[in-house]
From TrEMBL:
GO molecular function: UDP-N-acetylglucosamine 1-carboxyvinyltransferase activity
Post-translational modification 2-(S-cysteinyl)pyruvic acid O-phosphothioketal, affected residues: C118
EC number: 2.5.1.7
Record key words, sorted: Cell cycle, Cell division, Cell shape, Cell wall biogenesis/degradation, Cytoplasm, Peptidoglycan synthesis, Pyruvate, Transferase
Protein name (database record): UDP-N-acetylglucosamine 1-carboxyvinyltransferase
Natural source organism: Fusibacter ferrireducens
Binding site for phosphoenolpyruvate: K22, N23
Amino acid sequence: MAKLLVEKSGPLVGTVKINGAKNSVLKLMAASLLAEEACVIESVPDLLDVEVMITLLESLGQVVNYDKTEETLEIRPSETLNCEAPYELLQKMRASFLVMGPLLAKKGIAKVSMPGGCAIGARPIDLHLKGFQALGAEVTLGHGYIEAKAENGLVGSEVYLDFPSVGATENIMMAATMAKGQTLIQNAAKEPEIIDLANFLNEMGANVKGAGTDTIRINGVTALKGSKHQTMPDRIITATYMVAAAMTNGDVTIENVVSSHVKPITAKLREMGVTVEDDDDRIRVMSTGGLKAVDITTLPYPGFPTDVQAPFMALLSISEGTSVITETVFENRFRHVAEINRMGANVKIEGHSAVIQGVKDIQGAQVKATDLRAGAALVLAGLIAEGVTEVDDIYHIDRGYPQIEKDLVSLGAKIRRIEENEK
Ligand SMILES: CC(=O)N[C@H]1[C@@H](OP(=O)(O)OP(=O)(O)OC[C@H]2O[C@@H](n3ccc(=O)[nH]c3=O)[C@H](O)[C@@H]2O)O[C@H](CO)[C@@H](O)[C@@H]1O
Ligand SMILES: C=C(OP(=O)(O)O)C(=O)O
């Protein structure tokens, strides 16, 4: 399998531009199922997850044309929409489950494989299903599939989410766009990707208000038209590169960002002693070392994002003092601890927390990306570790970072990708 060889590198210096967000584009692609006409999505990153979603849309009957050079995706509806999403695509990527809301809204029926657990937790889909049921769908489970039916169409209703789940908010919001009457989603997730999706739906003719707050109000419409939309910048990659700059005592300017989306990262870096200058769409991160320990608790937006927990742990592992990271969003998101400890870090797991005793140096080792962000964290650790770090299982990283090594190399990092058939 392909791997990354990361050598100890000097301070990262220069400018890097952020691509469109994986966690938005996958939902925009799912939403295109609702349209009667072609949709065009811009700033589409070249990612494994995007490939999986293209395959899924094609298997449902959509005609997809992805121009990688222009980063543009055109999705045309077919006359006959197939309403079944198979296990082989659901097991590759959980976001595939987001086709259920649009299929149910448009065709009144959807049969989607249950996604199953994954490396960071069990990740149930009960809240999605509760929402579909509240909108009048009859939901049945059997043979690993979930079937939802609303033969006479969905009907607007009130849905209270026990937890502000990103995926459930998005799936229910898409289902409700074509329900009869009004739907209220309460305790909705407030992530920026939800606003991006709501904007796209509204451009398609939907009537969605309140996205980005904890109450989203959707007035159903009878049909949605095609639209063109630019994907928002990836805030998790932005955060990853901010951490990379801080870790290497670098001076990095990150462009095409929405700086308000990474406020918790900016605040924590400043607390540690890093200089962060932020304009609306540009962030400069400078560090001269001597970084201090901080405590972090992951939370739904606008709290500290769970997706940045692993990269931040890499930074804290070489900062002065003891830091505590408490993970409240996923129950099993510390699998990177064993890997980072193999590099000489001193991290102990205590229940839902990781206690990090900062060390002076870490050393290169052969390590495995246990999930997407864990993989990015190990690459960052490799930049400051003595010797060479070999990061295996990088298909995880390729799910969400279209060009991590190219971006970091452009800033002075020493990283080489070894393809499967290379020695
Ligand atoms: C493709 C995508 O956008 N992925 C992001 C999305 O995942 P995803 O949408 O799966 O995350 P959720 O917000 O739904 O999950 C948060 C928590 O809620 C739980 N839960 C969720 C749904 C449900 O029906 N029942 C339930 O108990 C989950 O197990 C988890 O513990 O938001 C997460 C939280 O910011 C991010 O880490 C992921 O990168
Ligand atoms: C957990 C993530 O993605 P997914 O929800 O697709 O697994 C992530 O982007 O860090």
